[in-house]
Amino acid sequence: MELVHERLLAILVRKYPWLYDTGSMFYNDNAKKAEAWEAIGKAMGIPSVVAKAKWRTLRIKYNRMKCQTIGKTGQAASKINRMDFLAFVDSDNNPRPTCSNISSQENDDDHTTTTIDTTVEPATSDTTADVHDLMFAEFVPRVRNLKKADQTKVVEEVAQLIANALAEQALEEAAN
């Protein structure tokens, strides 16, 4: 799935916490979930079952990437997580603890337990990114990689498209 579509899907799913948050009071409400998937599918222009399958795949991919970034002691630094836009599901999706039959000498000598609060609150903002904000944000780095002449051409053509659309809209409103 293309990164733009992944981000769009994540933005849309985030609006419906009962799809991913087991603590939500509507988490077990299948009718409410079905309505949410219908709305997401409609917004993306795909059937709801496809949107649901894409979300499942994206979430699995994110969990695998997250486990790879945790790594083991002594490993090299991990790659940057390009799927950090899915961090909002982390509050619900903590990996299961694992154990080993190999004990370390450090752990045998010291039986103290340290608790660390790892709760991360999502950033709050007065404005939420919508589909169009996301789309244009994805275009910017691509346009920056073009030659200056091509950058200018792209900007001029996009500006012309917007001007044409606004003119058509004004004509339609005047006709009504």
UniProtKB/TrEMBL annotation:
Residues 8-94 form the MADF domain. GO terms for cellular component: nucleus; transcription regulator complex. Pfam families: MADF_DNA_bdg. GO terms for biological process: regulation of transcription by RNA polymerase II. SMART domains: MADF (SM00595). Signal peptide: none annotated. This is MADF domain-containing protein. It comes from Anopheles darlingi.
